[in-house]
Write a structure and sequence with these properties.
Layout lengths: L2 H13 L2 H8 L3 H15 L4 E4 L2 E4 L1 H25 L6 E7 L4 H15 L3 E7 L2 H10 L4 E4 L8 E15 L15 E2 L3 H10 L9 E2 L5 H6 L4 E5 H9 L4 E2 L6 E10 L4 H32 L4 E3 L5 E3 L1
Parallel strand pairs: 3-4, 3-5, 7-8
Antiparallel strand pairs: 1-2, 5-11, 6-9, 6-10, 6-11, 12-13
Helix pairs in contact: 1-2, 1-3, 1-4, 2-3, 5-10, 9-10
């Protein structure tokens, strides 16, 4: 069985669209159609019902889906086992969005190398769609994500709650003097809606970054202001490169760990334990920033964009 055909089948099944599958796989729609046709010819039955609305699995397609997942898992297990360097006995691949590597993912790797010296570790970077596909295909064992997509064979747990806070690159910023320098960082639909409701005057600043915490590199090197994760920007605050905006509302933003259900239980147990400690340290960083924000704010409570308040 051609592994490429299996990956293409699963992507069409997950998205319900040949067009979406082609975008995620970085191939043309005709290539996706050809692969599915080859698969259907091999199996002797149609896998999808095509329509203007998209592609829906047939009964045969739904039956084949679980076998496709199993075949990919076995292939990836074999590929990773063969690739394990001498001196290591197990393999573990972590994927995370860019914002979650500094002060979280990297510290997790440090802890794992101490806890399991014989564990061969690989790190992957990507946006949620790419990381989810790698999890489904068995290329990754766990992913750190802001907005998880749960698929068969995967389970998710909330591990940390980020605090998105408003910061500026100049000293003594205020809600009144950031308007001409504000940069909108898109943190997803919920943030966009809450932001539009609470801060309508900043909704369309003319510049939007869909780069997550990478936006900090842009803000630090210009006269600019934006919402960024407290945990991530603590080092910039400590160095005096960024400054909290007093009385600016905050936005809670949960972080999730998405695990493959078939992960080696010994590896998972150790990985969960180490990650738990790393998250405690990360929470301490975030809490230190929030304490600083409360100290410089006039109000006794820090408002949440479109929600409740944090008492001082």
């Amino acid at each position: 069985m051609d592994i490429t055909l299996l990956k293409t089948f699963l992507e069409v099944a997950a998205t319900g669209s040949f067009v979406s599958a082609s975008e995620r796989l970085y191939v043309t729609q005709s290539a996706v159609s050809l692969r599915i046709q080859r698969l259907e010819d091999s199996l002797g039955k149609p896998m999808f019902v095509r329509s203007k609305a998209g592609a829906e699995l047939t009964n045969a397609g739904r039956e084949f889906e679980r076998y496709a997942l199993s075949l990919l898992r076995v292939w990836e297990e074999a590929r990773q086992q063969v690739a394990i360097p001498e001196g290591f006995t197990r393999s573990f691949t972590i994927g995370a969005q860019y914002s979650l590597w500094p002060r979280l993912g990297f510290r997790w790797i440090d802890g794992l190398r101490i806890a399991m010296p014989d564990l061969n570790i690989r790190a992957e970077l990507g946006m949620p769609d790419r990381l989810t596909r790698f999890l489904i295909e068995g290329i990754m064992h766990v992913g750190l994500l802001y907005m998880p997509q749960i698929r068969p064979g995967l389970s998710a747990e909330e591990i940390l709650e980020e605090e998105l806070v408003l910061v500026a690159s100049w000293s003594a910023p205020t809600m009144d003097n950031i308007r001409d320098h504000y940069v909108f960082v898109d943190w997803g639909a919920e943030f966009v809606g809450a932001h539009a409701l609470a801060l309508p005057e900043l909704t369309n600043p003319g510049l939007t970054l869909s780069l997550g915490a990478m936006g900090a590199e842009f803000i630090v090197n210009r006269k600019a202001a934006a919402y960024l994760p407290a945990r991530y920007i603590k080092r910039y605050l400590d160095a005096g490169l960024l400054h909290l905006v007093p009385d600016a509302p905050r936005f809670p933003y949960p972080v999730w760990a998405v695990w493959r259900d078939d992960l080696d239980p010994v590896v998972r147990q150790t990985a969960v334990r180490v990650l738990s400690q790393v998250c405690k340290d990360a929470e301490a960083d975030s809490e230190a920033v929030m304490d600083q924000l409360k100290e410089i704010s006039e109000e006794a409570e820090i408002e949440i964009l479109g929600g409740n308040n944090l008492s001082g």
